[in-house]
Structure formats: structure tokens, C-alpha cells
Amino acid sequence: MNQQSAIGSDDRLTQIDHTLDVLIVGAGISGICAARYLKVDRPGDSFAVLDDQESFGGTWQTHRYPGIRSDSDLHTFGYGFKPWVGPPIATAEEIRAYMGETIAENDLGDAIHYGWRVGWAEWSSRDSLWTVEAVRAATGQRVQLRARFLWMCQGYYRHSRGYTPDWPGLDDFGGDVIHPQHWPEDYDYSGRRMVVIGSGATAATLVPNVAEEVAHVTMLQRSPTWFASERNEITIASQLRNLQVDEAWIHEIVRRQILVNSRDFATLCFEKPEQVKADLLENARKALGDDYDLATHFTPTYDPWRQRLARIPNGDLFKAIASGKASVVTDHIERFETGGIRLRSGTLLEADVVVTATGFDLCAFGDIDFAVDGRPVDFHDTVGYRGMMFTGVPNLVWVMGYFRSSWTLRAEIIAQFVTRLLGHMRDRQAASVVPQVPDPEMELFDWAEEDDFNPGYLMRGQHLLPKRGAETEWKLSQDYWVEKDEFAAIDLESEVFRYG
Fold it and tell me: Which stretch is the leader sequence (predicted)?
């Protein structure tokens, strides 16, 4: 079945009348990964994938703003089992095409159901089953499914609403206000003055991609972000293709090289942050000139990799600024006025269009109402085992990927763990599994560490997320090199796992 044939009006879900072995929530990069590993490693298991959007893609289906592209290289953001053959930083269209090929090549189309949103899920210890209710977005039709295992792949932010601060006077503004998650189709911004509020990857993508058509575009930031300007090409990949090396080999070689480079760079950021700062600023200076005020506009107060490092493929943001078609203003918003934004410095930043590239609205566990044996689950009262399983919640795994490395690296590690866990449960004839903290005296903390990785959306949403523990396996690691070995060595008969 062609994956496109299920898009739009999907009634097939109502025809499922048997208990599924696994129900996957989300058909983005993680959900397609989960489905593929089930198909290959657990060919006898029945499963379904639900997504409330009209097609697969997740982030790459939601976001339609000009120039939308990856902020990770596709050799590691792509799957280990499917070679990536394009440039390392790819457009949303290229990523969705890659995901569509994955669906087709693994015959996953019949298992994916679009336009269905999961509203609630309840675990019954008596039956050792999840009962899940899904609602058809277009019609309000409801269907209940039963599944032995629930695999949450819906991501971590709310696709239906981005985060926009409540600025004074916003309703007084006489122009258009757009969040990048809700970019209007065929929106005409030519010849208009645009202000993009924000300094992360979204702002860095938007600014150079609208600069040629707007009258002028200003990136308004409260504080700077660290940017890495680099060529959108992997030299070794080009060399190997010229030698007509098989793409599978190229993918594996380049993937390993990028992983080593990323590990070494992250280590350098923590061990010699001043050296990394100097290198990043020197790249900016070469593009913007010696007279540009780098101290104000491109020198953050935090060390590199304390927040995500934004990539600038081929230096396009710097080039747009150097050309005079784009500019950066570092200031605080006092209020909105009819003609633009009044800054704390007193300056009126004139605008016809304001784009609020101000981040995500954290949405842990898909806004689904969870219950276990009739009792509502508050995930903030649970403790996360390796950031994927939670005390008191049986037969559930949640995919939270990496932030310092490509998200998909962790999605694949988790997928390999889940298929191994399902096989172990089948072998020991266990109907349920739930993690438990062996040491009741272990100290507990909020999910995100302020002195480690602390983007605003995580810090704003701590109350929605599980607790972490003082011991390593009760934390969310950002170290792929450690986890790839640790996950493979997890003892499924350890005291952490309680089977029923």
C-alpha cells in the first residue's frame, strides 16, 4: 500500500477489533522508527500507529515556514538502517521524502492511521491491557483500542500551539503576528518590514530565507545564541561518492565520523569553553567584519552547549546580515504599538509583520489523560528510568531523544531496547513490566538540570515532567557514546524491572 493512500480520510482504525500487541502514538521520526523496528525484529507482533495530523512527519509536517530545515545532520538524524544520500542539513521536504521511503520500503503504510488523536489511556492490572480512546479530528468519531504495550512517540511539544509570551499591547499592533508553527499558506511578505523575535534555530533559518523578498528583516533577541557556521557538505561523503563507493558504506563511515566529531566537540565545550567561544566568534568576525558588535549580538552569557548550538549552513545568516538586508537588535520588548515594537531602550522598531520564533509549548505525553486502575497519573509524581519508563506506569515507553546530538540516535537505541524487552516478556510469559526504584532513599530532583541543558521550554515545563534520581540510570542522559553500550547491556532481570 502506498503510504499516501491513507492520508486524509482514514476509517480503517474502526475495523480493528482485536487486541494489539503494541500501539504507537505519533508518526514522526520516532514513530516511524518504532514501527520499522517492530516490523523487522518482532514480525509476529500486531501493532498500529496513530497520528492526529493528516500525514506522517511530525515536526516536518507541522512546520511550513520559509526555509524550514533540519538543525542536525541527516547522517545521524536519519536512521542507521537507511542511508542518507543528500546534504547534511536538509529541508523539511527532503526529510519527509526520506521518511516516506522508509514507510514504503518496510511496508508500514497499512499500520499507520492519520487524523486520529488519542484522548485518554487507562491501564488495567486485572487485564494487563491498555484501553485507549482515539478521536477522529475531522468528525469527532470515537474508537476504543486495546493494546498490551504503549509506545509514546509524539515528541515533547504541542504541535497545535507554539509558545508566545503575553507582551503588553500585542492587540494594538497594526500588522500581522505569526508563530512559525502556524505559517499561513501562500503568505505574501514581499516588500514588508519584518521582525523575527527570537535567536534560535528557527529565527536563524527564517531570516536569511526571507531577506531577499522583504523590505528588511530584523532579528530581535533578548539575548544572543551560539551559532556554528559551516559548509553544508560532508567532504568525505563527496570523495567516497566520486569513488563510487556503495551508499550504505558511505552512510556508515560518515555517520561514525560525525559521531566522533560531535563527541569531541561536546567534550571541548565543557573542558575548554573559552577556546570554543573564541573559535565561534572568529567565524562570525570573518563573515561580519571587524567593526561588527559581536559582543552585544553574538556573545551569549552561557557556555556553548548549555543550550542547543544553532547551525548556519554555508553561513547564510551571517551573509544576510553582511549584505544589509537583515540586521540584529539585542534589546528587551517594552510593549507593542500600532507601528511596531517599543524597546526598553526607547527605540521603536517599525514592523509590518512580526514573527514570534519564541519557542515551543512543552507538551509531555501528548496531552493524553492517563490512568492506572482508575487513578489518574501525574507524571511529575513518577520517577523516570533512563528517561523512557516511569514508576507506577506499566507497559509504557516514552521516546525523548537527544538535544546535544541528533534526536533519532536515542529513538533508535530505545527502539532496540523495546523490541528486546518485548521478546524477554514473551519468553518469561510476563504480561506486564514496570520500573521500580531499588533504593527508596534515593534523592529526587526535577527533570532538567539548570546547570546542564536548560532551554526555556524545559525549564517552564518542569511541573509536567517526571522526576529524575541521583543515580545514573534514573536520569536522562545526553551522552550517546555511553548510552549505546549501556542500553545494549541492560539486564532485563535486574531488580529495576518488576514483571507481572
Answer: none
CATH code of 170-356, in short, is 3.50.50.60
- Look up residue 164 and give its three cell numbers: 508566545
Query: Each residue of 407-459: pLDDT tens digit?
Result: 999 999 999 999 999 999 999 999 999 999 999 999 999 887 665 656 666 77
pLDDT 10s digits, 25-81: 999 999 999 999 999 999 999 999 999 999 999 999 999 999 999 999 999 999 999
Specify whether the CB–CB gap between 248 and 256 falls below 8 A: no
Spans of all domains in the chain: 3-160+361-499, 170-356
Task: Tell me if 3-160+361-499 shares its fold with 170-356.
Answer: yes
